[in-house]
Amino acid sequence: MRTVFRPAVIRITHWINAFAMLCMVSSGMGIYNAHPIFDFSFPPAVTLGGWLGGSTIWHFAVMWLLVGNGLLYLLFGVASGYLGRQMFPVRLGELLRDVRLALAFRLRHESGSYNTIQKALYIAVLLLGVLMVTSGLAIWKPVQFSPLTALFGGFDFARVVHFLGMAAILCFTALHLVMVILVPQTLLSMVTGTSSSNHKRRADRDEKA
Ligand code: HEM
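That is the input. Now the predicted structure with protoporphyrin IX containing FE docked in place:
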């Protein structure tokens, strides 16, 4: 028997977010290439938009999708209690225990309940999303949002923060995809929302413990 545990809104916003992130990262690389911060550029093949103007149009258009979709995910996740249930609490002791288990290749990773490392990483990537939007605003409209730009230490530093945030999201995504390949049944649950009742029972037991 399979039990639905992941609401449709969470699944749909996750996949829209994955698409939006792909567009934002690749168009962002195109914008970066026009005026690199560091001593390298990205290969044109991985950029979106073809030239600075095209990349900028993609970046600013998809930005609205990313922000609207992110707000919907957060509002629904908080109001329905889903985020509180699946991602909290994150206790330091449990995190250290799960890191030890992961290093010994004994950490449970299954659909239906998140281990503490997953919880911490998902919370971190959601916070990174907030950092990307705020640092993006700071460099998009540095005059209108001057207090925000100042909070980031000025335009140049906000640009570096925006770049490093993107790099951190790419690292998360690489790890995330490795885990999906290692535990492919989680992919099915992110599409259908279902998980085997066995996993659900284990999740319920963990919740009570
Ligand atoms: C930058 C892009 C991505 C971000 C920021 C992201 C973020 C997240 C977050 C926060 C969750 C927890 C969702 C929740 O329960 O509310 C999640 C779960 C999941 N994501 Fe992603 N994701 C991204 C891309 C992808 C891609 C490309 C795939 C697969 C091809 C994928 C597959 C999954 C799966 C299968 C789960 C469920 C994991 C489980 O139940 O153990 N994600 N993702």
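The first helix runs from residue 8 to 34.
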